[in-house]
């Protein structure tokens, strides 16, 4: 194999391996910051407040 082939092989395999390790690290580490709000959080509306909204 030529030198260009070896460089291409090392770069591509190195990139995929590094990306795999990064993804595994992120999955194992878990979420770092807890958000102040949740997207699914909905406050209930009282019956007497329905006209105001």
Report on the structure:
This protein is mainly α and 53 residues long. The termini are far apart. The protein is rod-shaped, with a radius of gyration of 25 Å. The model has no long low-confidence stretch (mean pLDDT 84).
Short characterization:
With 53 residues, the chain is mainly α. It has one helix spanning 3-29.
Count of DSSP helices?
Answer: 1
Structural class category: mainly alpha
Distance between the termini: 71 Å
Q: H/E element string?
A: H
Unreliable stretches: none
The residue-averaged pLDDT reads: 84
Shape: rod-shaped
Task: For the structure shown, list the relevant keywords.
51% helix; rod-shaped; 53 residues
Itemize the secondary structure elements and their pairings.
Layout: H1 3-29
